[in-house]
Design brief:
By secondary structure, this protein is mainly alpha-helical. The protein has one domain (2-61). Helices cover 74% and strands 0% of the residues. It is built from two helices and no strands. It has helices spanning 2-43, 52-64. The radius of gyration is 29 Å and the shape is rod-shaped. Keywords: Membrane, Transmembrane, Transmembrane helix. The chain crosses the membrane at residues 17-43.
Length: 74
């Protein structure tokens, strides 16, 4: 009988440990979810009906367009 009581206590302890581990895991997951949302809000590019190819071309063209030299005025 004492052996059975010891097993029940061990089972109750292991269930508490599992619940704490699941809670910790969900907190880590929610932290990453909030971080991903913040990155999307600050760095996300809105397509506004444009295709990915068109956005890519626009980004590459704006990066390679030479800028005109400033004109010296007399």
């Amino acid at each position: 009988m004492f052996e059975l009581l010891g097993r029940q206590e061990a089972l109750a302890r292991s269930q508490k440990i599992i619940a704490a581990a699941v809670l910790g895991g969900m907190l880590v997951f929610s932290d990453w979810l909030v971080l991903a949302g913040a990155v999307y809000l600050f760095l996300g590019i809105e397509p506004r009906g444009r295709s990915i190819e068109r956005i890519n071309r626009a980004l590459h063209v704006s990066a390679t367009v030479p800028r005109a030299a400033p004109v010296a005025r007399a």
